[in-house]
Amino acid sequence: MPWTVRLLLLLVLLIPAGMLAAQEQPRDLDPVVVTATKLETRAEQLGASVTVVPGDDVQRYHYETVEDVLRTVPGVEIRRSGSIGKLSNISIRGANANQVQVLVDGVRVKSPTTGQADLSDISPDLIERIEVIRGPQSTLYGADAIGGVVNIITKKGKGPFSATVEGGAGNYDSYTGRGLFGGTYSLLDYSGSISHLESNGQFKNDSSDKNAVNFRVGLSLPWDSSIAFSLRWVQNEIGLPVKFLNSPPFVLPNDPIIDSNNRQISETWVMGLTGHTKPFEWWEVDLRGGRYQNKTTFVDLPDAAEQCPFAPFGSCEFPSRFNVQRWEAELLNHFHIGKWSTSSIGLEYRTEDGEAQGSTPFEASSHTRSAFFQQTFRFWDRLFMSAGFRVEDNSVYGTHWTERGSLSYVIREWGTRIHGGAGSGFRAPTFNDLFFPGFSDPTLQPETSFSWEVGVDQKLWKDRIRLGLTYFNNKFTNLISFMFIATPPFVKGVNIGEARAEGFEFVSAVDILDNLTAWLNYTYTESENLQTHRLLAREPRDRLNLGVTWRPIPRLELFGDVQWVSKQFEPTGGAYRWNSAYTVVNAGATYRLFQRYAFIQGVDLWTRIQNLTNEDYSEVRGFPALGVNALAGVRMTF
User: Fold this and answer.
1) DSSP β-ladder status, 148-154 and 100-104
2) Are 612 and 630 a contacting pair, CB within 8 Å?
3) Which CATH class is domain 3-303+310-637?
4) Is the dihedral of CA 86, 90, 94, 99 positive or negative?
5) Sorting pLDDT into bands at 50, 70 and 90, what band is 302?
6) Is residue 78 within 8 Å of 71, Cβ to Cβ?
7) Secondary structure of 387-448 as H, E, C letters
8) What digits encode the pLDDT tens for the residues 145-179?
9) How far is CA 161 from its chain centroid?
10) 304: Cβ contacts below 8 Å, ≥ 6 apart
11) Smallest Cα–Cα separation from 145: which of 38, 229, 220?
């Protein structure tokens, strides 16, 4: 019997059993979103496609990593190069990892050297919510927001002091432990966490050891004012078992050759300081400052009997140490006319520095000045329109303008929302693109794009059925591509690429019962590299996610989800390969052992099983993912 039939049969069997269960608290079906407009706005008023992942879901579904949290978001593709702790990137609607902006409390966490955010360097702890905005957002966020923006927002302390501690263990010698606390005291709110996650992986030298500390403190002031400071620190030490091939065609086999001594240590700091005041009903001000720093060290002893084709550059190893940092500051003024108009004016300044030490050393720095304007109109509590533009001047690659407009129209009597938007964007060349010895070209210009979308959302059965369908179209130009040359290092970056990505997203969720919810989303992406007339690298045509959450009795919650990804095109070293399609089944449960005993609010037993069917697959070809990966533990709340 196919797995899809079995899943549907299980769902049918669960429905009558759930009729005797207790009711669950309803979810907020119209959450407040900050990232889409830089001002608190209800989701139904946005012309953009938005997904908000509540922070409670991290504990509810026992996610080990941030990338696990994001895997089921429509339009999003997560690519982890192997087991837990390894390099994890995100793409949205065909826009690659360099073209997606990732923020923590509004602070950029992409490396200036690689141009990508490694999600494994972000802790899943102390998260209030994750906002995913799909589509071009360069008007608000400048460079690298072609495909969208992911903003991870730190949890604010609320109410009296509370704390949670938990620990778990599983196969692959996996262990996890964390402690969280939070609360308020007079005008002060505070929250914090500390966590540890380790695993030995599936190969020799495949281990991961991650430690994280997160902290937030805020102060409420008169005149609707507040200030807050957040700090997030992660150290991730991993083994890199997949051996780099030093001979043509440089194609990694599905069964990797093991490197027994290659390791990486990464340490990341993210600090944010925010201030807000609203002295008058018609004027409010936001001030934000942030610092991002990452230090990455590679430790790889030479392997015997190897020859290096890149001898003129000193060795076959990449730089052994990277040190990058970014400082940024932003001032926002919002001017309101009644409830129908808001004008936002923003100024931003940031500096970026990168240093590489080792066989191919270099140093680079840049500074960026930006200004943007955004106008929002709200008519009759039905029609919501927004438009804006941004000018960004960089000391290395010059001045660029972007613009965007969007619309949302709500027909409340029908439970219908029609939305759409269009805008331009650009992706800045990274320090590696511009200055890496041998591969780079300091004259490279930013990639550019124009994208548009249109969609409709529909609620039925007293909002118990929620449906959405969105068409999107992206055109990328001036892409930075590698051109093969006859001398080492055999490739060189040039602005010659053009590409397109278009398709649709379908989302649905059904509250079958008060205690039984099922959901499904599907993304179809038809992409093409207009230079080679092939699919975009690692971009599948089809992504399907479906899941169910069921609380058969008040003490027990069960959940499961299925992810299916079609095959992906993999151009490697001039050769063309395919990464096979795969289906991953995950499941888990939480059981409340007891609650409200002395100072203990509750004790939960929990488990999460990933890749339940032991699928043999790779999200990135040549870097096999884990087989059945089970964790079980205990959580205690005070």
Assistant:
1) parallel
2) no
3) mainly beta
4) negative
5) low
6) yes
7) EEEEEEEECCCEEEEEEEEEEEEEECCCCEEEEEEEEEEEECCCHHHHHCCCCCCCCCCCEE
8) 999 999 999 999 999 999 999 999 999 999 999 99
9) 30
10) none
11) 38
The model's confidence at residue 215, banded by pLDDT at 50, 70 and 90, is very high
The 10s digit of each residue's pLDDT in 227-286 is: 999 999 999 999 999 876 554 455 566 677 787 888 999 999 999 999 999 999 999 999
Is 154 in contact with 123 (CB distance < 8 Å)? no
Residue 39 corresponds to which tokens in the numbers above?
Answer: 């001002």
CA distances from 233 to 216, 354, 613, 627 (A): 12, 19, 35, 29
Give the Cα separation of 362 and 352 in Å (integer). 14
Collapse the DSSP code of 384 into the 3-class scheme (helix H, G, I; strand E, B; otherwise coil) and give the result. strand
Alpha carbon 141 to chain centroid distance?
15
Q: What does the alpha-carbon distance between residue 453 and residue 249 come to, in Å, rounded to a whole number?
A: 40
Token pair recorded at residue 559: 């959940």
In angstroms, the CA 114 to CA 429 distance is: 9
- Strands 162-170 and 629-637 come out as antiparallel
* Beta bridge partners of residue 131, listed in sequence order: 52, 151
DSSP per-residue letters across 585-632: EEEEEEEEEEEEETTEEEEEEEEEEESTT-----SBTTBPPPSSEEEE
Tokens of 345: 């004016």
The length of the chain in residues reads 638
Instruction: Give the C-alpha separation, 512 to 397, whole Å.
Output: 54
Give the separation between CA 118 and CA 88, rounded to whole angstroms: 5
Instruction: Quickly state the pLDDT bin for 585 (edges 50, 70, 90).
Output: very high
140/103 Cα distance (integer angstroms): 13
Which helix (H) or strand (E) segment holds residue 5: the answer is helix 3-18
Assign 3-class secondary structure to 485-542: CCCCCCEEEEEEEEEEEEEEEEEEEEEEECCEEEEEEEEEEEEEECCCCECCCCCCCE
| Integer Cα distance of 428 and 323 in angstroms | 19
Taking CA 349 as the corner, what is the angle to CA 343 and CA 353, rounded to the nearest 5 degrees? 150
**Structure tokens given for 408:** 């949302």
For 381, other C-beta atoms within 10 Å of its C-beta total 12
Residue 1: both structure tokens together:
């019997």
Q: Cβ–Cβ contacts within 10 Å for residue 282, how many?
A: 12
- What does the pLDDT read at residue 437? 80
Chain segment 361-381, per-residue pLDDT in tens: 889 999 999 999 999 999 999
**How would DSSP label each residue in 134-177?**
ES--HHHH-TT-SSEEEEEEEPPP-SS-EEEEEEEEETTTEEEE
Q: Which is nearest to 262 in space by CA: 218, 288, 207, 299? A: 299
**Distance between CA atoms of residues 394 and 590, nearest Å:** 50
Q: Name the H helices within 204-334.
A: none
Residue 286: name the closest of 348, 353, 328, 334 by CA.
334
Helix (H) or strand (E) holding 102: strand 100-104
Name which of 349, 351, 443 is nearest 397 in CA terms.
443
Q: What are phi and psi of 435, to 5 degrees?
A: -130, -5
Ranges 9-18, 122-131, 185-194, 563-572: which has the least confidence? 9-18
